Amino acid sequence: MDVLQLLTRVVHAAAVLGVVLLIAVAGRRVARRLRQPEVIGEITGGLLAGPAVIALAGRPAFDAVLPGPVFDLVKTVAEAALVLFLVGLAHKLRRGRDRLPRRATTWITVGALVPPLATGGLLVGLIALTGDRAARGGAPLPAFLLMVAVTMAITAVPVMARILADRGMSDGVPGRLSLASAVVIDACGWLLLSLAISLGAGDPARSLHSLRALAVGVVCALAIRYALGTRTASRLCGRSPRAMAVLVAAAALAVAFAMKHLGMTSILGAALAGLAVPHDDGGPWTRVVSTVSRSGQFLTPAFFVVTGVTVLTGAFSATSGVLIAGTVLLGFLGKGLGGYLGARVGGQPPRTARRIGALMNTRGLTELIVLQAGFASGVLPAPLVLALVVMALVTTAATGPLLELFDRMEGRPAAEGISATAMAPVESVETESGAR
Length: 436
Hints:
19 helices; mainly alpha; antiporter activity; 0% strand; Na+/solute_symporter_sf; transmembrane helix; Na+/H+ antiporter like fold
C-alpha cells in the first residue's frame, strides 16, 4: 500500500467518524427531549444507523460509501476508544463502600446477581423449548449458558451513576446501596465473562490457550501496577499528568490488543489495565484515568455503529418476537424482583426496595460491551444478541419513568429520592459530562 492510498483511507475514516459523532449528537438531543440518559440516544442512534442505511440504500451502496478497508480502520479506532473508556470504568470498580450497612449491601448484591443468573438459564430453556436454532448458535452448552446468564445479570455502573446524579439521588439510601452493589456485581460479571469465553473454546487445548492468554494479561497488569506504584511514577503523575495519561493509555492499548492477538477479547485487557492503576480517590491518578477515559468516551459512538453493522444487520429477520419478548420480560423480573427482595431481606423498607429494584435494571453500555465480547468469541449468535440489545435498551430506558412513578405514588417531588438522613453521607460517585 502506498502512502497516498493510506492517507486516503485515513481521511475517509475520519469523515466517517465525523458523521458518527453527528449521529451521536442527534441521539443525545432526542434522549434529552425524552428525559432519558444521553447514552440511550447515542446507543440507539449508533446501533440503527448502519442497518438503516443498508435497508434503505442496499448493501452495495453501503459498501461503496464505507468499503471494507475503511470500515476495518473505523472498527480499530472504535475498539481502541472502547479500551480507553473501559480503563476508567474498571478503575472505578476499586472504589470502596464507605459506611454502608454490610447486611443490606450483601443481600442486595445477592438478590440482583443470583436471580438474574437463573433467568439466564430460563432464557436458554426458552430457546431450547422453541427450537430456535438461530438463537442457540453452535457454542458449547456450558459456555452458552454461562454467557447468557452473565448478560442477564450485568448492571451498568456508569449509567446508573449518571441517573442518580441527574435525579439528585447520589447521596440517598437507594442510590448508594444500588451503586455499591452494582460495583460488586460488575466485578463478578467480568470474572464470569472470562470463564465463559474460555469455555467457549470448545476443547481443552483451546481452553488452555485462552487461560494462557488471560494469564499473560494478568502478568502485564501486575507489571503496570508495580511500575505505576513507584515513587518516580507518582512524581511524574503529579508534575505531568498529561504525559502520564499518554503512558497509561499506551499501556492499556498494548495489553488489550496483545490479549486479543492471543485469542481473548481486548475488553478483558482493558479491564485489567484499569484495575492496575493506583487508586487514590480523587487524587492525581484519578485525574489521569479520567483523562484517558474521556479521550475514549469521545469516540465510543463509533463502537455502537460498528456493533450495529457487524451484529444487527443480519439479525433482524432471524430474531423471533417470542425471543425478544421473553428476553425483555426475564430481564425485568430477574433484576427488578431480585433487587427488591434482596433489599427487603437486607432490612430496607418497601419504598427503598422498590427504587433499588428499578435502579438495578440499568444495563446500558456495559451490557453492550459484554454482548460484543460474547459475539466476538463466537458464544452468542447475532439473533440472540439483538434480543439482548433490545432488553438492555428497554430496561435502562424504563429506569427513570419507574422512579418517577414511585415518586408520584408516594406523593414525593420528582427526583427527590429517599432522604439520606438515615445514614451518614458518603462521597457520591464521580461522573463526567456525558458519562456512560
